[in-house]
Specification:
Strand order of the largest sheet: 8-6-9-11-10
Number of domains: 1
Number of strands: 12
Order of helices and strands: HEEEEHEEHEEHEEHEHHE
Helix content: 10-25%
């Protein structure tokens, strides 16, 4: 809620001011390319659009993608590289981490995926690299759960681990090639490999870049506060595309953003929503950028740091207040979200990842 916003809105935002328009340009150019590809299509017709695969525009503004097996899934589209913040620059690449929360179903499965004509580079160092991104996501989630509840409620992702107690990162070769990087094939291949539980979320670190984009995630228009909300009962998939040149996509912020879509952020009717592009308008908030949505009113003035719902009023609040929109609508921070565990900050963590250290 507004009264619990912990950031100083008056801070200088020099780094954000210079990078946010670049992100907006990336988003608008990608959307323009998609709309151009779909312009001549008949109503309901799927058109091959890279890197989605067979694609059409739904009435709610989302893109519908037909998978290789015929199933249709939804996404808002490609997300650009997030801006580098002043805090990022000051940290010099170092960020706080939190040991992961090992859990049975429902849970998040993390994967390394590469195209069929590229080598499998999954190794111990690659495992540690992805694990570090996940631990940084874990820290950010818990920190923002605590900040939204006045320090009363923490939160952790429910993550699949190995019998050794360390995160289980599966490696998979997809049938698509580096020339296509077709998400409809990648997602179908994940299902073919058994990664299709209704109690699963799937976060892919993909070892090949795509043009202009850094990430993509499934999302549906469903803001009902219910245990049967679609984001709570279906398998949802997200991908972080590979790095290229100076564009760094593999980082914890992109992973957290795409998994945020999988859990239902940001719904169209939510306060501060950008509308039919399914983001928000609050500066450097992890789910926000100037995406050109029909309710886009982006401002760098409200949020000067990379946090998960800086106002705690749009998609994530662990302690809602009377009259708050999130109290009566889908809220990732609600205890009914089956893919997060919520606990008191002083409670022991019996399922903490082995060797969590920090």
């Amino acid at each position: 809620m507004q009264g619990r916003i912990f950031l100083a809105a008056a801070m200088a935002l020099a780094s954000a001011v210079f990078v946010a328009p670049a992100a907006a340009h990336q988003a608008s150019s990608v959307d323009a390319r998609i709309d151009q590809a779909l312009a001549g299509a008949r109503p309901g017709q799927f058109v091959q659009v890279k890197p989605f695969g067979p694609t059409r525009r739904a009435s709610d503004g989302l893109l519908e993608i037909r998978l290789a097996g015929g199933q249709v899934v939804k996404t808002h589209g490609l997300d650009p590289e997030p801006p580098v913040t002043a805090a990022d620059a000051a940290a010099g690449g170092a960020h706080p981490e939190r040991g992961l929360n090992c859990a049975d179903l429902p849970r998040l499965q993390v994967l390394y995926v590469h195209p069929s004509d590229r080598p499998n580079r999954f190794s111990k160092s690659m495992y540690e690299r992805i694990r570090t991104y996940m631990r940084r996501m874990s820290h950010r989630l818990n920190a923002d759960a605590l900040s939204s509840s006045q320090g009363r409620i923490g939160a952790d992702y429910r993550v699949r681990c190995k019998s050794s107690g360390e995160i289980d990162i599966r490696a998979l070769e997809t049938r698509t090639t580096a020339a296509r990087d077709d998400w409809s094939i990648i997602q179908a291949d994940l299902k073919r490999a058994g990664h299709d539980s209704r109690q699963g979320k799937y976060l892919v670190w993909y070892d090949d870049p795509v043009e202009r984009g850094c990430g993509l995630g499934n999302i549906e228009g469903d803001d009902t506060k219910s245990a049967s909300n679609r984001h709570n009962v279906r398998p949802f998939y997200a991908v972080v595309w590979g790095n290229i040149g100076t564009r760094i996509c593999w980082n914890w912020r992109v992973g957290m953003h795409e998994n945020g879509h999988n859990m239902g952020a940001v719904q169209y009717a939510a306060p501060r929503s950008s509308g039919d592009k399914w983001h928000c308008n609050d500066g450097l908030d992890l789910m926000c950028y100037a995406d050109g949505g029909d309710k886009s009113n982006y401002s760098v003035r409200r949020c000067d740091n990379a946090v998960f719902d800086c106002g705690k009023d749009t998609y994530f609040d662990t302690l809602t207040e009377p009259g708050e929109w999130l109290r009566g609508h889908w809220n990732i921070g609600w205890s009914g979200n089956r893919f997060l565990d919520f606990s008191r900050p002083d409670a022991p963590r019996p399922s903490a990842e082995a060797g969590s250290g920090r």
